[in-house]
Amino acid sequence: MTPAGHAGLRCALMIMNILGISCFYHDSAAALVRDGAIVAAAQEERFTRKKHDFGFPHHAIASCLAQGGISTHDLSAVVFYDKPLVKFERILETYLAYAPRGIRSFMMSMPLWLKEKLWIPSLIRDALGYEGDLYFTEHHEAHAASAFYPSPFSRAAFLTMDGVGEWTTTSYGTGSGNRLQILGEQHFPHSLGLLYSAFTYFTGFKVNSAEYKVMGLAPYGEPRYVRAIYEHLIDLKEDGSFRMNMEYFDFCAGLRMTNERFSRLFGGPPRDPEAELTQREMDLARSLQEVTEEIMLRTARHVHRETGETNLVLAGGVALNCVGNGRILREGPFRNLWIQPAAGDAGGALGAALFAWYALFGNPRTVDPGGDAQRGSYLGPEFSDKQIEEFLRSAGARFTRLEREELLEKVAELIASEHVVGWFQGRMEFGPRALGGRSILGDARSPRMQSVMNLKIKFRESFRPFAPTVLAERVSEYFEIDRESPYMLLVAPVVAGRRVPMSSGQEALFGIHKLNVPRSDIPAVTHVDYSARIQTVSRVQHQLYYELIERFYRRTGCPVIINTSFNVRGEPIVCAPAEAFRCFMRTGMDYLVLGSCLLAKKDQVPLAADVDWRKEFSLD
Ligand SMILES: [Fe+2]
Predict the structure, then answer these.
(1) Are 506 and 514 in contact (CB under 8 A)?
(2) How many angstroms separate the alpha carbon of residue 25 from the centre of ligand 1?
(3) Å from CA of 176 to ligand 1 middle
(4) Rg, the chain, Cα only
(5) Distance 588 CA to ligand 1 centre (A)
(6) Of 175, 268, 256, whose CA–CA distance to 225 is shortest?
(7) What pLDDT digit, counting tens, does each position of 393-433 carry?
(8) To which H or E segment does residue 513 belong?
(9) Residue 264 CB: number of other CB atoms within 10 A?
(10) How far is the CA of 289 from the centre of ligand 1 (A)?
(11) pLDDT in tens, 72-114
(12) pLDDT of the residue at 505
């Protein structure tokens, strides 16, 4: 790492634009930071329409620069989110440790390394036409920076957990002012992220993508494999650190996550992705989730003991485990918790840029007592009403333009009368969750909305309920939580007074049928264990979205609506009006709101009947 030196001096004299980049693993992204303020951040998948796109983020970079009103010539520094050579060294060492067994996976990974990954500096320079300063942070430094610097705390402990970076899989330490200090690490192959991914693979879901489905499946199962996991797979210490028994895993040397021995331990081969889910997968999910939460809680307690801090910040893919996060908040010793919404590797781009500004160049950091610096995570591109109208006219769409008040009243009325509404407003969210910028909305009170939205819009029979958005000041009336959760990264129970108990007959139902039994007076967002993945919204965070729910509340007495991401299964969240319109026309969505424009499905000229929307959206 180049020390502050001339860059620090220069930043005192002029505006400093720093571009952060993460790519070549999964979820490529770019972020632009100007004099410490987050200007823009976006994931490449939103532009290429390739879910979890890991290629060089050409489009995301172009978008960030455009939002910042600059070109590459205005960049003071470009920062990459990990150290490719150290990562390469880990891959070589791992190969040698298992040689010759891992030759196939080694040979498969080499072309990308030799073609791109080892040449990242020249690749960045060529792609951007950029000749200025280029820096590399360590992978977990970038995660830690993404957790601490945007947080509302002047000092905090940080904890990062993921699959793997260079060598590190878990790191913790402290952030204070503009400094980050790493105090402890756990290294590859011992990794909570990889343990979770191993079970994701074994239960028939997509690794690095569908881990959240395993988390959603857990409440249907019994924890009957917990003992087997502790006895055979991991040796867990009191401080949360652990070692994995690599005799059961294949990710170091093979092309799969788990091996025959793992299959024998859990009663047969991995589930075929197309096969029905059985009680075994549910029990595995529940057991894994329990072990994961135990590791997260023990580690959090250890970090608290070691640092003595009262605030904790989280990042790394494991921080997307919002059930575990909820338990850290409720049971852990920390008083306050802040989680980077782009907790996975996309957030590494943002962390890298912030790390350069604060830790490398030594700029002072001030904290806004009113909130964090993440700006609601609305950091992507936006489209003006003029652009939207131009597009709608070119597409031959029939729409009405409404004034703000009229629009809010009308949409609140549509949701309250059980219509499904696509909601496209302002800047796109950064991170995996839609937070009211690119969302599909529905009535959380409706017992039929759960299946209507799943089947008509998402084209899935989901065992996961939808997530609620609730007015921030009313959250405790509905959920057992006493604070805001603006990024949908905390799970909390629905308050006891709103729950509906299940009869013994209903208890005996299996899978999706169980989910269709109303569990509360907001059934569409209540999981079978009475939990909900909560987003709170405040006026400061997103005024228009807040006022929409406020109108809905005035009309119905309920301050909670369904908020699900604006996409169908297998597709990234929509970015531009054209994608939103296409999704609207190809699904059973009733209404679409694009900025000030309202479209009713019944008014539109249907698209060609021979278009198979299932194929078009390449369902997985
Ligand atoms: Fe990571």
Answers:
(1) yes
(2) 9
(3) 22
(4) 24
(5) 36
(6) 268
(7) 999 999 999 999 999 999 999 999 999 999 999 999 999 99
(8) helix 512-515
(9) 11
(10) 20
(11) 999 999 999 987 777 767 777 776 777 667 666 666 777 776 6
(12) 83
